[in-house]
Amino acid sequence: MNAQVLSDYCLSKLGTELDYPFSPDSAVFKVGGKMFALLADDEGIARITLKCDPLHADFLRQQYTSVTPGYYMNKTHWNTVLCDGSIPDEEVYGQIDHSYDLIWKSLTKKARTQIEAESHPLFLFPDEAYQPHEPQEGDELYPNGIFIFNITRLLNHIAKNPDDYSIEVINVADYKPQFNLIEIDKCAFADLENPIILAEIAPGRYNIIDGNHRVNRACHEGVESLQAYKLPPRQHSLFITKQNAYDTYLKYWNEKLKYIGE
Predict the structure, then answer these.
(1) Under a CB-based contact definition with an 8 Å cutoff, are residues 61 and 68 in contact?
(2) Which of 44, 101, 134, 209 is the most exposed place for a label (fewest CB within 10 A)?
(3) pTM for this one?
(4) For residue 77, what are the domain limits?
(5) Residue 130 domain-assigned?
(6) Phi and psi based region of residue 78 (left: phi greater than 0; alpha: psi -120 to 50; beta: remaining)
């Protein structure tokens, strides 16, 4: 077992961060800002220092000569494991798990919840590509409270980057408005061949942000399906018109992730 294998295993733990505060040769693995492993390589032999329950730490030292009190650490609560082949790989992995669990349980509930949320594959971080899409004269907008989407800019972007967007066929009945607030005469010339745009405004929930006229015409004419772009928040949020609204939208979306599966 070498240092790279141990590093990969530590990094597989939820919310793990890698740092080198002591030297380029000493890798520190943290969760919630607290260290649970210190890894170094001694001429090809990995040495890893891990937190341990005091009674278990003493037991391991007696059982394995390659386990010693932690270097430069509280020797009651930390062990250093020399991975020279004298200790089974499964035991080393188990000690890493134990150290991580001790640190994880020491974190506040708020910190654990935040780490779990940020580790979710749908969690949104600010995108460096975002720029406020302030409306210009003639731009079509879709307002949803403080979140205003610049539809004109979005459509232009789709037209220039068609490979980044896939078209799906949707069931019109799934998006039929509860109340027909759009007069039919305004919908008569809506192009049903033109895909509508659906934005995922909560996990698994989509709203129409462009194409209400088309949906209403389809409902009146008995058309059962339409083409649509179904955009996840990573795509449609980039076309919010103001920075503060964009920042708020990310928080709004990430908060929704807490309730998935409930």
Answers:
(1) yes
(2) 44
(3) 0.67
(4) 3-118
(5) no
(6) beta
- SS3 sequence of the chain: CCHHHHHHHHHCCCCEEEEEEEECCEEEEEECCEEEEEEEEECCEEEEEEECCHHHHHHHHHHCCCEEECCCCCCCCEEEEECCCCCCHHHHHHHHHHHHHHHHHHCCHHHHHHHHHHCCCCCCCCCCCCCCCCCCCCCCEEEECCEEEEHHHHHHHHHHCHHHCCEEEEEHHHHCCCCCCCCHHHHCCCCCCCCEEEEEEECCEEEEEECHHHHHHHHHHCCCEEEEEEECHHHHHHHECCHHHHHHHHHHHHHHHHHCCC
Q: Is residue 36 part of a domain?
A: yes
Residue-wise pLDDT for 87-114, tens only, equals 999 999 999 999 999 999 999 998 998 8
Cα-Cα-Cα-Cα torsion 111, 242, 154, 209, nearest 10 degrees, comes to 80
User: How distant is the alpha carbon of residue 109 from its chain centre?
Assistant: 19
Radius of gyration (C-alpha) of the chain in whole angstroms: 27
Q: How far apart are CA 249 and CA 262, in angstroms?
A: 22
| pLDDT tens, residue by residue, 139-173 | 999 999 999 999 999 999 999 999 999 999 999 99
Residues 158 and 249 in one domain: yes
